[in-house]
Specification:
Structural class: alpha/beta
Strand content: 5-15%
Shape: globular
Strand order of the largest sheet: 2-1-3-12-4
Helix content: 25-40%
Order of helices and strands: HEHEHEHEHHEEEEHHEHHEHEEHHEHHHH
Largest sheet: 5 strands, mixed
Number of helices: 17
Number of strands: 13
Distance between the termini: 35 Å
Oligomer: single chain
């Protein structure tokens, strides 16, 4: 999940080892801070010729860096990386800025963006990139990134960092999702275990499996990590938009992103969330708001992400396997994306910033960070240093999904904060309040379209 003070390696909002990250999107604030409130926003105004990097560093450059995590494995690792970089390099000095721990990271970014006080290098939740780029708060980095580095990146990392045909951000780790199951439980119940995306359980099959597991003593056999599902929080979108996509639905018109009408409330979206609501109505979903359903044995299947593997495997050594999310009709789909690095608009020496970012992208450094936070390495060279992602490894499914197009980015539009907020609130109403699915999604569509209208559809201007 996207985060602030705790730490985890997610998507745009996520947990990993330890405590839950506070990650409310604050969509209204994001829109206000990033585009000046609406009608006077000019959209992307950078020249088509990206001059962020010109290959030169004059003298000794000093750069400031902001990072989303407070005291944590991620932050400790980055601090160590900064020290190592400063020890090795003479012409670039990096300062890792200590941020107030009592402020949500996203709020700090929004406030700094509004006042022009962003650092020289910033990390941020991946889906927020599009609003930052559109509103001119980021500089494109095409000119900084060599072809060899781009080729080494996972395709999902390149995809997430691209807006309006240009590269604006790069992450050092990605995310993955699946269903965690206990092999011994499945075997005892006579339930087949999928071997990959091509033979994922269908949603109908999963319904039958959940009912079978109930007869095996699991009162609420499916864990959806609803502790993360407060209205407006990103887990609802990151975690369950894949069900909508799998059913042939969407959150907004794909491609042009001009309307949500007929998409977030279209037949596929309604079908997917009706199925999930039926699971809740039947008592098949664990509704206890903690993160212990799987490890405590209350649930036999957990719908979650890569960050839980260490904890689950520790609870049931050698008995945990990861299978694809269910196929709601048009193939299994999973989420992707996590924190990215970008260069805010300003006077920073882009080459100096890239010198540090390229250091963080070295295989050993990517491996170092992903060992600390449990995330998925962003580069093929770093993946080769992690046996758990190799064919036959316990987390290989995550790599397979990211490489082969099973993983899908959240809508790549500056409207994303409004889209996510509306969908997240709708999901919470549908699951917790048992609100009518179609009517609730109709309301979400109206909210999204209202935001799109207020910003003239977020037109891009790259001239």
């Amino acid at each position: 999940m996207s985060g602030t003070s705790a730490t985890r390696a997610w998507p745009a909002v996520r947990p990993v080892r330890g405590s839950l990250i506070p990650w409310v999107l604050c969509a209204a604030l994001l829109l206000a801070a990033c585009d000046g409130g609406g009608s006077d926003a000019k959209g992307v105004s950078a020249s088509p010729k990206d001059t962020t990097c010109d290959g030169k560093i004059n003298g000794t450059a000093h750069i400031t860096v902001w990072f989303h995590a407070g005291p944590s494995g991620e932050f400790t690792t980055l601090r160590s990386q900064v020290k190592e970089f400063n020890r090795r390099r003479k012409h670039v000095r990096v300062e890792l800025v200590t941020l107030p721990e009592n402020r949500v990271y996203n709020d700090l970014v929004l406030s700094a963006a509004a006042s022009g006080d962003l650092p020289d290098l910033l990390d941020f939740d991946g889906p927020n990139l599009y609003n930052y780029a559109w509103s001119g708060k980021l500089r494109p980095i095409d000119s900084c990134v060599p072809a060899g580095v781009r080729a080494d990146l996972l395709p999902t990392i390149r995809q997430q960092g691209t807006y309006a045909g240009r590269l604006w951000g790069i992450g050092t780790f990605d995310s993955g999702m699946g269903l965690y199951v206990r092999k011994s439980v499945m075997k005892k119940a006579g339930i087949r275990i999928p071997t990959g995306p091509k033979d994922a359980w269908t949603a109908t099959e999963l319904t039958g499996i959940l009912r079978t597991l109930r007869t095996q003593g699991y009162k609420a056999p499916l864990d959806l990590r609803l502790v993360y599902s407060q209205p407006g929080q990103e887990w609802n979108t990151y975690g369950f938009a894949p069900a909508v996509w799998s059913a042939g639905g969407d959150l907004v018109e794909p491609g042009n992103h001009r309307t949500a009408e007929g998409y977030v409330n279209g037949p596929g979206s309604v079908e997917a969330l009706t199925t999930m609501q039926n699971w809740a109505k039947a008592g098949l979903i664990d509704m206890v708001k903690d993160d212990k359903a799987f490890v405590s044995g209350r649930s036999a299947i957990s719908w979650c992400g890569h960050w839980t593997y260490p904890e689950f495997n520790k609870a049931f050594p050698g008995d945990v396997t990861i299978v694809p999310l269910p196929d709601f009709g048009q193939g299994t789909v999973t989420g992707m994306g996590s924190f990215q690095w970008g260069v805010p608009a300003g006077n920073a020496d882009g080459d100096a910033v890239w010198r540090f970012l390229s250091f963080l992208l070295q295989p050993a450094q990517v491996h170092r960070m992903t060992v600390a936070n449990g995330a998925i390495p962003a580069t093929e060279s770093a993946i080769r240093l992690s046996p758990q992602y190799a064919p036959g490894g316990p987390e290989h499914l995550f790599i397979e999904q990211l490489r082969d197009g099973v993983a899908r980015p959240r809508p790549q539009t500056p409207a994303y904060p409004a889209i996510s907020d509306a969908f997240s609130r709708a999901f919470a109403k549908i699951i917790f309040d048992r609100a009518p699915v179609r009517a609730t999604l109709d309301e979400a569509a109206k909210k999204i379209d209202k935001d799109l209208a207020a910003h003239d559809g977020y037109p891009t201007n790259t001239s």
